[in-house]
Structures are given as structure tokens and as C-alpha cells.
Amino acid sequence: MSWWARFTGRHRFEDELDRELRDHFDRLVAEHIRRGRPVDEARRAARLEFGGADQVKESCRDERGTRWAHDLAQDLRFAWRRLRAQPAASLAAVATLACGIGAAAASWSLVASVLVNPLPVADPDRLVVLGERDTGPGATGGLRYSKPYDVYRHVHESGAFPGLAAGGQVSRPVAIGGRTAEPAKVYFASHGFFDLLGISPGRGRDFSAEDDQRGAPLVVILSDHYRRRVFGDNGEVLGQRLMVAGVPATIVGIAPRGFRGLNLTDAPDLYMPLETVGRVTDPRANYFAEDLPTKDSPYSWLTLLARLEGDASAAQAAGRLNALGLARRSFELTDVQTAALPAAARMNVRQFARLLGATVGLLLLSGAFSVGMLLLVRAESRQDEFAMCLALGASRVRLARGVVLEGALLAMAGGLAAIPFTQWLFGAVRTFQLPGDVSIELLNLSVDVHSWMAVAAGGLGSALLMTFVAGAFGLPARRVSLLRSRSGATPRVTRRHARTALVVAQVAIALVLLAGAGLFARSLSAALAVNPGFDAQHLVTGRMALFDSGYSRPAADAFFDELRQRLAVNASVRAFSISASHGGMTPRGQLVVDGQPRRFPSMVYYMAVDDRYFSTIGLEVIQGRDFSRDDRADGPPVAIVSESLGRLLADGADPIGHRIGSPSERNTPRVVGVVPDIITDVTTLEPLVLYHPLIQRPAVAWRAVAIRPAGDPEAAIREVHATIRQMDARVPPPPLRTMEDGLAAQMGPQRFGATILGGLGGIAALLTLLGTYVVAATVAGARRREMGIRAALGARPRQLSGLVFAETARLAGLGIAAGLFLAWLGAGSIRPFLFRTPPLDQVTLGAVAGGMLLLALAVSLRPALSAARVNLVSVLRDE
Amino acid sequence: MPSARRADLPQGTLDLLILQIVALGPIHGYAIAQRLQQISRDVVQVQQGSLYPALHRLENKGLLAAEWGPSETGRESKFYRLTAKGRAQLKADTEAWERLTGAIGLILRTAKETR
Question: Which one of A91, A158, A524, A750 has the largest count of C-beta atoms within 10 Å of its C-beta?
């Protein structure tokens, strides 16, 4: 018989054991009768011979090997009954744990999907991206991964990698079922791309070699997030058609759910075969880098991806590849996971993950403390019962097990309740962005194996902690003395230190979390107030890339001229301006100032702007003059500098008349004006910007547009989009947003931090208040007799409630001090995310500490009032 | 006085004896006790307090199987029989026992002769 059958067949076993022993007994009686004894005497003799049936049964039960399980089940039932007897406290404990465990599971999933396993591809360590070190004047020294098509062809034909694929992303207007075309990110991937990554479409099929021909009928594979956004969760999409830049294409597959392309900050919507890129882009755009019609350098848009062979390391493979001397290029191979998230972003995300982990850990700890305290208080209220059980011979182990099981039941219920909470949390954080522009929505968070493990670990950990707290302090040390002292003597306020420590720890944790939230919120508002006096709310900006639509430089210039003329007569647009950023000089490179080479402490950005730029965005030229129509392409080169750059270049003197430019320029531009600093990037607080007239700087085919709307910014955006569509339906309407939204979007991590820390801190504060109340109430309850005596001796009610308040204030004060110390320890980890806010901001810390103290005093109001009303007569009568 | 002739069973031998008795055919607990007493000529007397826990232990180990059936008195009794596993165990235990008792006897005899 299996153990399980024995465990479950307990009632049958008892019944059969009973029958078996009765049979034996009856046979004994029969034997005695057979030997000639009377019936009564025979029974008596048999009973003597047989011995105690109960002892025999007990021994048989022991032999079954299921006794411990039955005892456990009994203890569990008892624990369950006790929890049910106090539903409010039990529910509070479960909710507490659910919050803590859920938050832990969610943040672990988040961290896992960004840092641990960002790309769900097979064997990502052996998958490399071909990069080239960015060298030369003004270079950043970083790795560039984009390559023109001809490089792909060279590497492919060299046979250096048997497994090689290429892909590049292009924005194309996509229309579905007669709806208006919307820009979509289309990833053009060579045949074998998915195969190389080791993934196959979640539904439908991969691209075939025939699909990846220049004349082949167009096919697309949808990304899972695009399918859900456009088609909804249901509905058959395979075989349906959509229009990519006006050309019909058939949906043949859907990428697996977790796959979000090779770049975490820019996930594709659709995938199409690489060779068909020419069919949906303008032929003049020349994606294949063939016999260049213009003097433009070949368009670098492809990422080259290869799988390392055998045991070859990335360095060895790069050495072999470079030995071939392809196009005189020198490649470095980076593993695909590292390339997926830029190094700076990776560091930010890691710091952020650490912060999140610490936060969640603190919350979980706080939750475990408060549940531990509930158990502790409950165990204390059962001291008499425990003492009685011990006196009757129950083992301490068994009693401790009861307390442990209560904690385990709470932890299990908390773990179960954490699952829906986690799911809700995933939904709530969806709209946020992580540092490095990683969109949480694209991470496609779900409760997976990782989160299950986190839930299990969280549940187990908190159960252990609670058990320790309750078991260590809850069981009575002396049984008899406790029973003896029941009569009359004042019950000692037992285990006060344990409770005090718990409340102090909770106050400290809540203080840290709330202070963190406060710092993030302050930093957010500081970021939104970076440009005082500047109307960021009524300025719409965006970028337009005409290159993808096949525009050459002159054609793009003509397009923008026409757009400007059309918008000049549009009533909803007050002013319109075009600019282009054309790189800059890093602190490592040198500029030339008045003929002398010169380095600047931070990046100097080059901006080419038209003569309406400053008036459109609302910047007044504070020194010198604005650009004008007199600044001609063939005229003397001129420049305007930002205030910070002007101050640096003239060493605090008047910058007008100085000459500044890059070393490659033959004729260095002369500074004719100074404009105030304007912060468009929250990481650059003293922007060094060198403005040139657009007409003197023929720029690349994409431009930035700035629009000052006459009224509603949204209406102006609609008008601009409509105008662009009228001019050329192939040009995808550019994403436009107000500058305020743009700045706010850069503060995604801070917004996320403020919300998450604020939410978790709020929960922790609630738990703390609950804990403070419980302690204040129990202490006040235990001191009733003392209070009664004081009252009888003439203490006034105010003095009595003062005693309770003093106790609370002492606890809260200790907790606040501990919390401030923790905040000081943790200051370093939050510093990178704060904008113009010190990590030990006195206003924030002071407000949070004061608030905590006031709230703690507020919750002890009720115990304090009841202490004030104590009457010695009623206390003695109660006893 | 019969009690003077009784002997305490060495540790672990009860299981072996029960297996041997049950090996003769399906049998209930009372009969096992009777049979042990008869065969040993009242030297071995097993108390219910050891017999039934031992039977349950052997049943849980899978050495014995039990089923309820009508007995000679017409009432239902629980009959134990040996399983294949029990038979193998009995063989192994018997051999071990014989080796051990043989060795002990040899030691006693040899020691007596050389005295």
C-alpha cells in the first residue's frame, strides 16, 4: 500500500484495526469458554490477557508512518480555524504579504527581461553583431553597428560566416483594410534571419528564399505587439493583406510573443524580406547602395548578425574576418545581448534595477515585520493557553509548530493573492519607460516562471521571517510561574523589546520609501521647470526623415520650402521653422577659437537653423543679432552661440566678433549673436550650442520642425500632418509633440520611480501605522492597571494620555532616526536618477519625517483616549 | 510453571517468525499467536501489543498482504499472506539467521572444547 493510500485511507484503517482486534478478543473469550469457564469469567480473563487495546492501536498507528502528516493536518486545521476567528487581522496580513510578494515578483520579472534575458533567442552568447569603432575627428569612440548593403554583400560572399543575416529598420506608412496609413516600423530582414536567431514564428511561417527576391510578391510577418494593437487579441490575421507604402503585402506569420527585435529601445512593428525593401521605398533612396546617383555616402542602415562557429571566440572570428580585408574595414564583434542595449542605458537600467530591488525588499521586509507583529501579539494573548498546554504535557515543538503553521498559511495565502496583484501591477507600469528609453510595454511582462520563482521565494522568506519573530518571542518561557502569577499580580508587559524593534524598523523603512518617492517627485517638477519663462507648452517639435521616402537633398530642401510657404498661410499655425542638427564636437575633440585649438568641457552641439527659428521657439537674442535673409549661402559664415558656450569661449567677456568653428572649416564663422540656454535634454543642463544659418549648412535629408501654434497645439499638429499628406502621400506624417511632453517623456524613469516608490511607500506607511496602533493599543491595554492606580492617585486624564503619546513618539522618533540613517546610506544609489535635487534634500526628508511622526501620534489617539478614561474600580472588577 | 520456560525473543526475530508462519498459508492474527506458541511448545509467547504492530509494519513494507474473508467460525477475519517480496525476504532472513546461529554455536562448542 502506498504512503498516500495509507494517509488518505485513515478512517478505513481505524475501522479495520478495530474489527481485527475485536476478532482477536472474541477468539480469546471463545477459547476460555471452550476450557470450561463461565462467560463473564471468560471475558474478564480475556481482557486481562489482551491488555490495553488503545496502546496496541497507538503502536499500530505509529507503524503506518503517516502520523506526522496527520498531526500536521490537524495543526493546519487548528491554525486555519484560529485565522478565521479573526478575519480582519488575517485579511490585513494576507493583503500585506500579497503587496510585498507581488511587488517582488513584478520587479524581478522586469529586471530579468531587461538585464538577465533581454533577447529570447537561442544561445545568444554565440550570436554577434558586426560593429566598427567610430574614430576620426569628433568621433565618440563608440561602436557603430549600422552598415550599408554592399558591406553585407561583401561579408556574405566572403563566406566568413556560414550563418550570417542582415536587417534594418525603416519607417513606412502601413494601411490595413482601407484605413488611413499610419507610420509603422518595418524591419527588413534577410532570408534566414529568424533561423539564425533560433526562433520560429509563433504562428504562420518564416520567410522563404523565394520571398527574399527583389521581384517576389510582398509578404510580412507581424510582431506580436503590433498584431495585438492593430487586430486585437482575436481574429485570424494570417493570409490577410495590408498596404505597405501603397503596395499590397500578405501576412504570412506572426513573430513569437517575447521577441521584440534586436534593439530594446526600438522594437519593429513588422518584418519584411530584405530584398523587397526597394519595392516599398522610393527607388531614389538607394537602399542597396548601387551605382550611387548622388554624392551621398552609401546609406548605412543594416545590422549584420552572425553566429560564431564551433569554439571560436568573438575576437578570433573578428581576426579572421579582418584578415580578409573587406572594403578596408576593421570589424569588432559584440554579442547580440550587449548590442541590444547601449552600454550607458545598460548601466542606468542596472542602477535602476538595484534601486527597485532595494525598494521592494524593504517593502517585503516591512510586510513580514507587520505580519510577524500580528502573530506575536496573538501569541502573547494566548500565553495562558500555551502555559496550560505545556502543563498538560504538550511539547514545545508542537506549540511552536502551531505558530509556524499560522505564519505559513498566511504566507501561502499571500503568495496566491500576489498573483492577481502582480498582473495588475504589470498593467499599471505598462506606460512607463525605463532608463535608456526601454519601453516597459514592449517587454511584454507576464507572470512567468521567473515570477513564480520569485513569488515562491518571497513567500518562503517571509514565512521564515515571521516564524522566527513569532516563535522566538511568542512562546512563554516559564509555564508554571505564568499560571501561578495569574491571580491578581500585574501581568508583565512581555516581549516589549521585540515589538519596539519591529515598529522602529517599520517606521524606518516607510520613511526611506516615502523619502525616495518625494525626491523623485521633486526631481520631476524640477525638470519641468528647467526653462523659466519659456513657453514649452505651446511649442510643437518633431523630426522628419525624407530620406526614407526617396528624397535627395535638393528635393528635400524644395519640399521644406513648400511646406513653409503652405503653413505660412495656415490660420492654426502662427510660426513655423526648420532646423537640423548636424552633429557636434565631443569634449575629446577640439574646436578652433580665433585660430587657436580649444577643448570644451562638454559636447558642443551644432544646429543649423533658419532665420525664423529663434522667433518661432520664443528665444530672444540677448546680445548681437538674429540670423537674417542677408546671411547668404555664399556670404561670410556667421554663428550664434548659446549663453553657456558664449561665456566659455570668451572667458566671460563679450563673445560677439569671436570666431569659432571646427578645424576642418577653411573660413571659421564669426559669432554675431547670443541666445539664452534652452534645455531640451534633461541630462545637459548647460547646453553648449553653436547655431549656424541653415542656408550656409546644407544639411542631411532629415530636418527638425518647430511650430508655434496659433491656438490648440493638437489642431496645429493635425494641420501640419494634413498639409504634408497633401504634398506627398508617401511621406509618413512625422510624430510631433509639445516640448513640454518631450521633456516629460525624458523623465520616464523619474516618473516611474515617483509612482512606484510612492505607491510602495504608501503601503509601507499604512503597515507602519497599523503596527504603531497595535503596539500602542497593546501597551495601553497591558498598562490599564497601572493607569488605573495613577488615576486613583490623582493623575489627570491628560497626563495619562500623555504617557501613551510619549511611548508612541519615542518609537516613531527612534524609527525616524534609523530611517534617516538608512536614507544617508542609500543616497548614492538614488543620485543618478535625481535631477537638480540632492539625494538628502532637507525639505523632502523633513516633510516625510514630520508627516510620519504626526500620523503615528494620530493613530495612537484612540489608545491614548481610552487610557485617559481608565477607572481603577472597573479594572479591578474586570480582573 | 510455564512462565519459567518462556524466553525473550532477540531483537528483530519476531518479524522472521511471523513471516515463516504466514508462509505456510493465509492466516489471521490470533492463529499466528497460537501457532507460534504451539510450535515453540509455549517457549515463545507473543503479546498482542507486539504482534499487531509487527503485522502492520510488515504489511506496510509490502512483505505481507491482507484481505478480509470468512474464517472457520463463520465470522470475518483479516487473513495475512506472504507476498513475493515477503518470500524473498524470508529466504534471506532465514539464511542470515542460520549463518549467525551456526557461527554462535560453533564459537560456543569450540570454546567449551578448548577449555
Answer: A750
- Can you list the alpha helix ranges (DSSP code H) found in A382-495? 383-391, 396-429, 440-443, 449-474, 480-484
Residues in chain A: 879
Tell me the C-alpha distance between A516 and A147, whole Å: 43
CB A138 within 8 A of CB A583: yes
- Which among B48, B49, B60 is the nearest to A6, CB-wise? B60
Contact B60 A27 (CB under 8 A): no
Please name the member of A26, A60, A65 whose beta carbon is closest to the beta carbon of B52.
A60
A60–B56: do the CB atoms touch at under 8 Å? Answer: yes
| Contact at CB, A56 and B49, closer than 8 angstroms | yes
Rounded CA gap, A174 and A180, in Å? 8
With vertex at residue A455, the alpha carbon angle to CA A826 and CA A368, rounded to the nearest 5 degrees, is: 55
Q: Compute the nearest-CA separation of B92 from chain A (Å).
A: 22
Compute the nearest-CA separation of A4 from chain B (Å): 12
Q: Are B58 and A65 in contact (CB under 8 A)?
A: no
- In which band, very low, low, confident or very high, does the pLDDT at A396 lie, cut at 50, 70 and 90? confident
Contact A60 B30 (CB under 8 A): no
Rg, chain B, Cα only:
17
First to last CA, chain B: 34
Rounded to whole angstroms, the Cα distance separating A367 from A373 reads: 10
Q: Which long-range contacts does A288-296 make (Cβ < 8 Å, 24+ apart)?
A: A288/A149, A288/A150, A289/A148, A289/A149, A289/A150, A293/A552, A294/A552, A294/A553, A296/A552, A296/A553
**How distant is the alpha carbon of residue A445 from its chain centre?**
10
Residues of A with Cβ-Cβ distance to B29 under 8 angstroms: 20, 23-24
CA distances from B50 to A67, B43, B46, B57 (A): 18, 16, 7, 11
**What is the band of B87 on the pLDDT scale with cuts at 50, 70, 90?**
very high
Instruction: Check if the beta carbon of residue A639 is closer than 8 Å to that of residue A691.
Output: yes
The answer to whether the CB of A703 falls within 8 A of the CB of A580 is: yes
Q: What is the tens place of the pLDDT at every residue in A649-707? A: 888 888 999 999 887 777 889 999 999 888 776 666 678 889 999 888 766 656 888 89
Q: Enumerate the H helices of chain B as residue ranges.
A: 13-23, 29-39, 48-60, 84-113
Instruction: Kindly report the number of other CB atoms within 10 A of residue A440's CB atom.
Output: 19
Interface check B49 vs A, CB under 8 A: yes
